[in-house]
Amino acid sequence: MSITTSEILSQPEVWTRSSADLAQARSIFGRPGESTLFLGCGTSEFISESLAVLRERSGNGQSDAQYASEWTPTRHYDRVVAISRSGTTSEILDALQQVPAGVTKVAITGVAAAPIHEFVDDALVLEYADERSVVQTRFPTTVLNLGRAVFGQDTAGLAEQCAAALLEDVPEIDDVDHFVYLGSSWTYGLAQEAALKIREAAQAWSESYPVLDYRHGPIAVAHPGSLVWIFGQAGASLVDDIRETGAQVHTSSLDPVVQLVQAQRLAVKVAESRGLDADVPRHLSRSVILR
Fold first, then answer.
1. Residue (of 267, 266, 11) closest to 129 by Cα position
2. What are the pLDDT digits (tens) for 185-202?
3. 228 and 242 in contact (C-beta within 8 Å)?
């Protein structure tokens, strides 16, 4: 069994363990009314997008997300939340040093002894969710589910639902050469992350879009070799339009984060079907450290 697969399968246990960190997470994710910026790179940025939508829509205050490499301090925030599994990512460390004085800076990371701690006021360290694999799986889902709980979503039973889903089959990939993931609101971040998993692990053609924007151009390349995966609710008319292209459509009643776990499994399956090792993605390392 690959390292990536073992970490995917560990998620129900890790999510259950994370409940002990909920009290601290409440202080990390921001007090009600604080304007908050979530910063990340790659997977962490996609999770940041989901967290920002969830926080603002729960009434906790203005919430934005930015790529750390693109952010400059132009608007005021009360709090900056930097998400970095390794705590070593160069762009994250550089961005934190740009945060104006007086702004609360916090980090969510998987490593207790990491450079990021030098640049923040407080940190939520999820060492049990850290990973050996280059490809992130259980760390981002754990962060996201903690955020959902903080923002008032009911996350009880998610670990059990995930454990049951891990026993189910993932979609067939025979003759599939094109993977598309669609989401809406906070699940658009999940769609982007699922597409990234396919690119990282399997070097395959993948795309991601907001659900209703898919018909505004991207559907033009859908064909019988496409698998279109929709996170959350999908209107029947959209499903019909996609099926008319010959593409396979995947929908599910599972919780969106449990669906993301299934998408992680699919990425490994695609990698193995191509004779690739998901533990050793091409041109990638655990952390991007610029020199």
1. 11
2. 999 999 999 999 999 999
3. yes
- Whole-angstrom distance, CA of residue 13 vs CA of residue 195: 25
Q: What share of the chain is helix, strand, coil (3-state, %, to 5)?
A: 45, 15, 40
Map tokens 């900056």 to a residue.
80
Tokens matching residue 15: 């999510």
Please name each of the domains of the chain with its CATH number: 3-154 (3.40.50.10490), 168-273 (3.40.50.10490)
Per-residue pLDDT of 10-64, as tens digits, reads 999 999 999 999 999 999 998 999 999 999 999 999 999 999 999 999 999 999 9
Of 56, 43, 52, 81, the residue nearest 192 (C-alpha): 43
Residues pairing with 40 in the sheet = 67
Beta-bridged to residue 180, according to DSSP, are 207, 228
Which one-letter amino acid corresponds to residue 59? Answer: G
Q: Are strands 122-125 and 206-210 parallel, antiparallel or unpaired?
A: unpaired
